[in-house]
Design a protein that fits this description.
41% of the residues lie in helices and 22% in strands.
Length: 375
Amino acid sequence: MEKFYTSLGLMSGTSMDGIDASIIRSDGENEYESTFDEFFEYDQALYKDLVNLRNKINSANDIIVNSELVSEIERKITLYHAEICNKIINKSDHEVDLIGFHGQTIFHDASQKISKQLGDGSLLSNLLKKDVIYNFRANDIANGGQGAPLAPIFHNLIINKNKIELPVFILNIGGIANITIITSNKNDDLISYDIGPGNCLLDEWVRKHTSYRYDLNGKAASIGKIDEIILNQATENFENINKNKNLSFDIKDFDLSFVRGLSYEDGLSTLTKFTSEIICDSISKNAIKDKTNKINLLVCGGGRRNLTLIENIRNKLPNNINLDLIDDYNINGDFIESQAFAYLAIRSLLKKEISFVKTTNVKKSCTGGILVKNY
């Protein structure tokens, strides 16, 4: 029988609002159980520091130019992770064997073979006196991959573990929207890629016009008027860009210039519709390729709480696609990625593959992550 490990996964998304933390117990293969999930919000000062830093980083050279600030914020981030980990570990019913530390992404450009996540794995290991696995993307990128998405192998596990009828498309709407296509229980059959913007444009528009960080339940978007001319032009421009870009995305790949001049509500409505159009077009193309009659589309990530966005997607999908929230299957859609990095940490420890040819475009399936034992 395979050994079970208790792993604490830490995920900080592109919304930069805080840390999702999860503990799972797993053999790193076909078995897992979730024992803890909780969200820890960044305080306003740390949130502002992160947004300010990310705004300064538009190229690989900017990381070097701002190296002192990067190091300063990285230390703050790591100390905060250590603080919440200590609280979690002290309350856990199981001895935590290792930490899966994703860190906070501030720049990602697969074409330059760079993906920078803030987070000092060595310092975290020293503070917690635990094995820490971090820098999950580097080996994939070194082997020709995009460095993302990395959660598909965990998506495959939860779908097969819960015996959900295949084929299944898992749509994760974070800052960037990505999709995993599952047609069998074999990891090598997984298909995954970044679609385009998820919450990133919506959240940025909200931050520019209000003191809020996002449009709660999509309420403001629901009362605005969509500018169809701007929408059609933006959608066409994205299609042209996407034809020549077979890469994973960073939120810096998108900007708000095309809705400049619209009112707050009209801009948000247009951006929400634009985001839904991009998502639906991508899903529909893959649905046409699939010869089966029915496809289960399960939505996870923070974007699933935007009711206007979800309704826009639902209304445009082909009739053979059944859209549900992943929560409808008793799977918590807020903590898929933090659980995923707990699982990836176990697989990394065991030198098992975490990325695959059709998920990140890596040349051949490979493991990833760096193990540190600084105690």
